[in-house]
Amino acid sequence: MTLACGLTLMAMAVALSKLAGLGTSPISSIPNVVSLMTPLTIGQVTMVFMVILILQKNSSVEHTAIDRVKLFNRYQTPAKIVTKMYDRLLHRTIDDFGVKSDEVLNMFDFFQGTATVPTKVMHTEDLHLPTEYAIQVGANFSVISNGDDIIENVGFIPGTIGRVFYQEYVDNQGNLLSTDLWDWRGFKSSTQYFGQNGKW
Predict the structure, then answer these.
(1) Secondary structure of residue 141 in the 3-state scheme
(2) What is the pLDDT of residues 28-74, one digit of tens each?
(3) Looking at the DSSP assignment, which residues form a beta bridge with residue 104?
(4) Domain coordinates of the chain in residue numbers?
(5) Treating both helix axes as pointing N-terminal to C-terminal, what angle do 2-19 and 26-37 enclose, rounded to 10 degrees?
(6) Are 148 and 173 in contact (CB under 8 A)?
C-alpha cells in the first residue's frame, strides 16, 4: 500500500513538473521520451519504470559497472567491482548477472577474510544439531525444539528449498536472544545479540 501511494505521488509530481514547464530530471527522461512515443502519460510511464527498477533491485549504475568489468576482463585487463554494503546474498546476485566471484570484492568479505570462500549449500541437517532436538520443517523456516522448549528457528533463503539464511535463538520464554546470519556461500557471517526488550 505504501509503495503504491509513493509511486503514485512520485508519478504525479513528475507529470506536474513537466506541465508547469520546469522540465524533467535525468531519472525522468526515459519515462518522458516513452510517453512522447506512446499513448501513455508521463505519470503512467514513470510508475511502470519505477516498478521495473524496484523489481530488478539494481539501477543502471550497477548494470554499467557489471558491463564495464566484463569488458575489461574480456581484454585480459584485471578489474573488479568493489562494493561496500553488507549483503549476504551478493554472490547469488552476481551469479544471476553472470559475474564471477573473483570479479567482485566486497569490503565486508575482505576484512572478514571470506573473499575467496567456496560456496557450500547449507541445510538444517548440516548444522549438526544435537540428536535429541526435534525439527519441525516449515515452508520458510524450521522450528527446533528440545522437548516442549523451542530452542531456535532456522530461516531459509527466499526462493530456495531449505537453504539456511539465519538461526534465531530464543530463551525458554520465547524471547529472542541472538541471531546468526548466514551467507549465501554457506558460512555464518555475523551474529546479532538482543537485550531483554528484543532490541539489538
Answers:
(1) strand
(2) 666 777 777 777 676 666 666 665 554 445 556 667 777 777 888 78
(3) 81
(4) 2-56, 60-112, 124-193
(5) 80
(6) no
Ranges 39-43, 84-88, 139-143: which has the least confidence: 39-43
> 190 pLDDT exceeds 90?
yes
Average the pLDDT over each of 51-60, 131-140, 146-155 and give the range with the smallest value. 51-60
Cβ count near 109 (within 10 Å) = 22
41-50, 104-113, 139-148: which has the minimum mean pLDDT?
Answer: 41-50
**Other C-beta atoms within 10 Å of 58: how many?**
14
d(CA 15, CA 59): 22
Of 103, 128, 102, 114, the C-alpha closest to 189 is 114
Looking at residue 193, its amino acid is Y
Residue 81, helix vs strand vs coil: strand
User: For strand 149-156 and strand 164-170, is the pairing parallel, antiparallel, or unpaired?
Assistant: antiparallel
Q: pTM higher than 0.85 for the full model? A: no
Instruction: Compute and round to an integer the Cα radius of gyration of the chain.
Output: 23
In contact, 86 and 192? CB cutoff 8 Å: no
A 10 A CB-CB count for 167 gives: 23
Rounded-to-10 torsion of CA 59, 17, 8, 54: 0
User: What does the longest C-alpha to C-alpha distance in the chain come to?
Assistant: 71
